[in-house]
UniProtKB/TrEMBL annotation:
SUPFAM superfamilies, per database record: Flavoproteins (SSF52218)
Keyword match Flavoprotein: yes
Any Pfam family the entry gives: Flavodoxin_4
PROSITE patterns recorded: FLAVODOXIN_LIKE
Name this protein carries in UniProt: Flavodoxin-like domain-containing protein
Keyword vocabulary terms for this entry: Flavoprotein, FMN
PANTHER family linked to this entry: EXPORTED PROTEIN-RELATED, FLAVODOXIN-LIKE DOMAIN-CONTAINING PROTEIN
InterPro entries: Flavodoxin/NO_synth, Flavoprotein-like_sf
Signal peptide residues on this chain, from the entry's feature table: none
Gene3D superfamilies: 3.40.50.360
Molecular function per GO: FMN binding
Flavodoxin-like domain mapped to chain residues: 51-206
Amino acid sequence: MMKWFVLIFCVLLLVAFLVPFVVTRIENQQVQQNLIRLNEPQPESTNPDKVAVIVFSRSGNTAVLARHLAEKTGGALLFIQAEAYAPGLPGWVNAMKDARSKTAVITPESIDLSEFDTVFLGAPIWLYSPAPPVWQLAANTRFSGQHIVLFNTYNSHFEQSYIDAFETLVKANGAQSFEHVAVLRGRMGSQLSTEEMLRHFDQQFDWP
Ligand SMILES: Cc1cc2nc3c(=O)[nH]c(=O)nc-3n(C[C@H](O)[C@H](O)[C@H](O)COP(=O)(O)O)c2cc1C
C-alpha cells in the first residue's frame, strides 16, 4: 500500500514539474510565430484621433488580434509591457502567481486617451480574469466619456464577474459605455490557427 502511495506521489510530482515546461515550450513557439506577423510593417493609422487599440499580450496572440483590430478600425495601436510576465518559465510562474491580481508594474504607466472616442483594451485571460496589466492601465487612466471595448483571448473559460468588475472600474474612471468580446482559442494541442482566431473574432464583433 505504502509503495503505491509513494509511486502515485512521484508521478504527480513529475507531472507538476513537466506541465510548466511543456506549456512554456508551446508558448515560445507561439511567440515566434506571432512575432513574424507583428514585425510586418504596420499600416498607417487612418483614424488615429478616434480609435485606440491598446494591448497587453504575453505570447503574442492577443497582440495579433489587436493588430487586426487596428487595421480594421484604422486606429492607433499601442502596447503595454510588463517585464515580470515575459515569455519563458519565470514569466509563466509570475503570471500564475499574480493571475487574479488587479495590480502590475507596467510600461507606460498610463496613456492620455483624451483625443479618442473608442478605446479597445486587450489582454489574455489568466485564471478566469483579464491579466493584471490591463487592470492596472484601466486603474491609472482617466477616461473622458469614451466607449471601451475589452477584448480577450482565452483557451477555455473566463468568469463573467471579472468582466463586470472591469466594466465597473472603467465606468468609475469616466468611460461612458462598455462592451466585451472574447475569442475562445481552445486548449493547447487543439487551438485555433491565427486565421481562424481572427475569423471567429470578426464573426462575433459587430463592425460598424
Ligand atoms: C498564467 C496563465 C493563466 C491562464 N489562465 C487561463 C484561464 O483561466 N482560462 C483560459 O481560458 N485560458 C487561460 N490561459 C490561456 C490564455 O488566456 C491564452 O493562451 C491566451 O490566448 C494567451 O494570450 P497571449 O498570447 O496574448 O498572451 C492562461 C494562460 C496563462 C499564461
